[in-house]
Amino acid sequence: MARQTTLFDDxxxxxxxxxxxxxxxxxxxxxxxxDAAAADHALATLTTTLAWRQQPVRVFGRTVxxxxxxxxxxxxxxxxxxxxxRLEPLPWTPLLDTLRRLCEDLAGETxxxxxxxxxxxxxxxxxxxxxxxxxxxxxxxxxxxxxxATRRFHLRHRETRETVHVDLPAGSVLxxxxxxxxxxxxxxxxxxxxxxxRINLTFRRIGTATAPGGKT
Length: 216
Fold this sequence. Notes:
The protein is an alpha+beta fold. It has one domain (19-200): Alpha-ketoglutarate-dependent dioxygenase AlkB-like (Jelly Rolls, Sandwich). The protein has helices at residues 36-49, 94-107, 180-183, and strands spanning 4-7, 17-19, 26-30, 56-59, 62-65, 69-74, 80-82, 85-87, 113-119, 126-129, 142-148, 151-157, 163-168, 173-177, 184-188, 198-204.
């Protein structure tokens, strides 16, 4: 039987990071990166200013509406393709650029794009997938900033089926790097307990030579 690990937000770790994965890549959770006031301000601003869309995607041969809203921002040429969608970036907003630089300092990487996800309540979700599209490179680093409602984040090893569950509170950043996208799938499942919105900003670097990819 696959082993399951559950990690909960620990305020004592707000100044450092907690490694979530037992191996085959890294996923480090930093809590308290934004304080409550800054996180609330970012949530309110991004909710009303980003160009949110509910786009159709191809899943198991069917076209369905994504169960969340998304928006793609970044530098010119940072196009991104997944699940039959090709996204062309909108220009950085001042707030997105500020948050990008904060995540760059934390991750020790540079990012040229961000996929913003708006989960309107606990019914909105993202299914099992890996961010392993060709334009992200072989071992991408992705910094995921959470705002709003706390949601449970699942990771599952492709081979051993071991799972890790971790809560992502407002103001936290999860930095996934190394081989994590090759060996681990992740999802945000539905939750009947969540009634408030959550925004998730996944900062990433798109390579200059892009090729169509294909996962949600």
